[in-house]
C-alpha cells in the first residue's frame, strides 16, 4: 500500500506579488525552494492564511535572496500582495517507508521571507 505524505513545507511566507497575465504557477525564491527540497515544476498546494483559499499549481524558481513569492495566472486572483501563505508539496510513498519519512519543513522570516 502507498500513502500520500507531506514532503516539503514553506511555512508562513509573505506574498510579494500577483501577476494575472503570467501563464501560471508560483514563483518562489530559489533559496527557499532549495531549503524546502522543492524542485522546478513540482506540484504544490498554496494555503492562504488571510482568506482561507487553497489552490494547486507548480513551482518555478525566482531570484535567490529576493524573498519572492508571486502567484501567477489565475492563482493571482486568490491572493493579495502581503497575504501570508503556506506552500506544501506531497509525495506518495510506501506505507512502511512513510512511518520513517521526515519532511523538509522551513520557517522563513515572515517580514522579508529570508531564511534566518
UniProtKB/TrEMBL annotation:
What is the stated purpose of this protein? Catalyzes the pyruvoyl-dependent decarboxylation of aspartate to produce beta-alanine.
Q: Gene3D superfamilies attached here?
A: 2.40.40.20
State the reactions this protein catalyses. Answer: L-aspartate + H(+) = beta-alanine + CO2
Enzyme class, top EC level, equals lyase
User: Which classification does the entry list for the species?
Assistant: Bacteria, Pseudomonadati, Bacteroidota, Flavobacteriia, Flavobacteriales
Q: Name one Pfam family in it.
A: Asp_decarbox
What are this entry's molecular-function GO terms?
Answer: aspartate 1-decarboxylase activity
Q: Which organism is it from?
A: Lutibacter profundi
In which residues is substrate bound?
57, 73-75
Q: What is this protein called?
A: Aspartate 1-decarboxylase
Amino acid at each position: 500500500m502507498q500513502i500520500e505524505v507531506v514532503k516539503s513545507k514553506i511555512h508562513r511566507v509573505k506574498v510579494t506579488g500577483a501577476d494575472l497575465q503570467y501563464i501560471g504557477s508560483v514563483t518562489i525564491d530559489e533559496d527557499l525552494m532549495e531549503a524546502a527540497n522543492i524542485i522546478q515544476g513540482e506540484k504544490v498546494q498554496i494555503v492562504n492564511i488571510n482568506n482561507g483559499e487553497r489552490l494547486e499549481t507548480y513551482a518555478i524558481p525566482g531570484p535567490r535572496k529576493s524573498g519572492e513569492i508571486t502567484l501567477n495566472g489565475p492563482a493571482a486572483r486568490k491572493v493579495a500582495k502581503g497575504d501570508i501563505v503556506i506552500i506544501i508539496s506531497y509525495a506518495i510513498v510506501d506505507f512502511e517507508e512513510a512511518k520513517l519519512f521526515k519532511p523538509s519543513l522551513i520557517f522563513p522570516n515572515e517580514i522579508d521571507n529570508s531564511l534566518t
